[in-house]
């Protein structure tokens, strides 16, 4: 069966739900939203924000594995959601507006029209409910930790972060949730739940895989070949355009399988080349994460909104407008990588996770086979920048953690450092442990980046149109010219709003 729509959206994730809802608000526009996973509407693990970690590495996770990494940890698992709402139904919804400095950097790299004056007002359009962590959800340990960080590091103690107003501070986050109910305000919950019945012009195809894009003789995207849950294959046609919203791994993956990417690589795999676009899958960037584990003197009180409720922004003196360190203070312990090395996790433990806010290392996503059922190659290349900035920043994050832990505000909580351990002070030994145990904060982006016409690795123009073809856009984190210094989910929601605006205007 072949169906015809005005706009076909591939990927019912953070941006895809936004675009589908906004375009379908016009009853004359026929919209199709394709999602490989099921609905999240009756999945309590997706709807209750505090249960976000239960969504990892299970039936709703593509769980991509890195290829061997010469610069350190080869056991990184990149969570990507296979459920309506995408990663906004899968993560802990730390809700930062994109910093002004990041958007100014985007404009410098060719994202005309994405500067602060144009892009930031989109935040006020979001249907996602965003609230500061409520007072009743503020864990006493985190309160003490933030006070210790402020007094030790000399950074402001903030009641709630505003990423646009400061590059340094310690405070509780805003989250995409209802503080009254604890319910997650994902893109699906905010934009689609309860809205579909009133929009018969929006068709939602769940548990449906997009296998490849179809093009007419003018290289215009004319439709998508689909495989349904029962194994049947069909085609949906797009009279106006196709929009990819699969995220930083699956959007370039679908482009490559459809013949859009580096021509030589595609020919080696036996894929017919539609457009030679060398940047597809390149420029992969993510926030690499370090880890410090402490033994605690007493259990943490069972008080939390998301278990990842507070953090620190810190500049290390580089003179930039963006912070160097983005540090989370989780209430959950994820110490699997040190445990592989033989480090025991105490029965009572807490952790500190410094992240490189503006990493300089770049990886890639690529195909090793023309078979669409085989996972793409995921090569993050964390800590690979030639100057060693990323590694040095994570090592400094360990020293920052040690300074905070020694503060009197934490004397009743922290007993000792169990990883890397108080005896690990040699710079080379500490750097080796950071390399061996660094992880991801699940923020991959940049693999279909916006860029200038003279940028050979730019995949999209400033209106999100894919170069070399017609009628095809990408609208998700893969279009980021550079990574935001803070958690990006709100920025991705805003990309969805911007994309809907651009599509509706054509």
In short:
The chain is of the alpha/beta class and 506 residues long.
Would you mind describing this structure in some detail?
With 506 residues, the protein is an alpha/beta fold. The protein contains twelve helices and 24 strands. It has helices at residues 14-24, 44-47, 100-108, 116-119, 140-153, 187-191, 247-257, 263-268, 336-340, 389-405, 427-437, 489-504, and strands at residues 2-10, 31-34, 64-65, 77-78, 131-132, 157-158, 169-172, 174-175, 202-205, 208-215, 221-228, 233-244, 260-261, 275-276, 288-289, 292-296, 310-314, 325-328, 349-356, 364-366, 377-379, 414-419, 439-440, 472-474. The strands form seven sheets. Strands 1, 2, 9, 10, 11, 12 and 24 form a seven-stranded mixed beta sheet that branches. Strand 10 (208-215) and strand 11 (221-228) form a beta hairpin. The longest helix has 17 residues, at 389-405. The protein is globular and about 70 Å long. The mean pLDDT is 96.
